[in-house]
Write the structure tokens for this entry.
Amino acid sequence: MLKVLITLPNSIAGTLILKGFAKGFKSNGCFVLQKDLRELTVKDVQRFKPDIIFGYDYGFLFSDDEELKKYIVENNGAYKLIHYFADEPKGKYACVNKPELYEQFGKIEAYSFVWDRNFVKDLKNAQYLPLAVNYKVYRPMEGTHYDISFVGRPLTDKRQKYLAALIKVFGSKVNIFSYEKHFLQSLDDMKNKQFLTDDELDIYKSAYRGFLKTEEDIATVYYNTTVNINITLQGESGLNYRVFEALASRGFLLTDYMSDIEHNFVVSKELEVFNTIEDMVDKTEFYLKHPEIAQRIGIMGFANVTKSHNYTARVHKILKVIMS
């Protein structure tokens, strides 16, 4: 039985993803130990004697424990290092203000799996592996109905331009779920960039619905929304976690087009895509008028996710690669 040490990062999204991979390793017959990277010590590694150390983005290199980092590098032959990148390898989210990590990682023998196929070339021993979802924890309940929902950080010009367009056309039908500080920042941005008029800013302000704390809360919003909007924040071709999360919740998803969609889903059958602001507005209007079609697409998307985009399948591929 392979022993896998999962090093949980100081990141909500990263921790969620690695806990999913932990379940995937368990379902593939591995013995798993999950440990917060901020608490992991050399003694933990020595006692557990892992066959695999699995990390998010640059993994153990984020540790403040210099002894731990040195030990893992010097004893690399005793286990396989595997890193899953759900952020751009050279970007600010992966490096977290430590751009030197990219060069440091390049000197280490490790397997890398990347959520966006366009970044495979940036890492040694890297392969494309799209994100997945533990659909069993997304258990929606009947609840408040929403016409249009956006879940996530309403930040960056790209997202704010799309959200501003929704406010201008659909007004109070728009609902935004995010951290309060991120929403307040976006409110200032919308005003300073003049994306919205004063009257439209009032509508935007009233669209805020708070932060969703649990997978059940998230699933309930997605499930009870006619049109769920996703606007990708980073990457060139890959699908972000919201795609899988919304479909796991049995929700209908309208997302910006990324080329990896065609490798994983059937457009207009399992989800819908848009290419421009005008395209997003037109399709949102169509599905608001035809909620039965949106609901049918959401059900088909859920069926695809449960069958092909679960962590058991992802880990099976990882093990096949590293054991070959």
The mean pLDDT is 96. The chain has 14 helices and eleven strands.
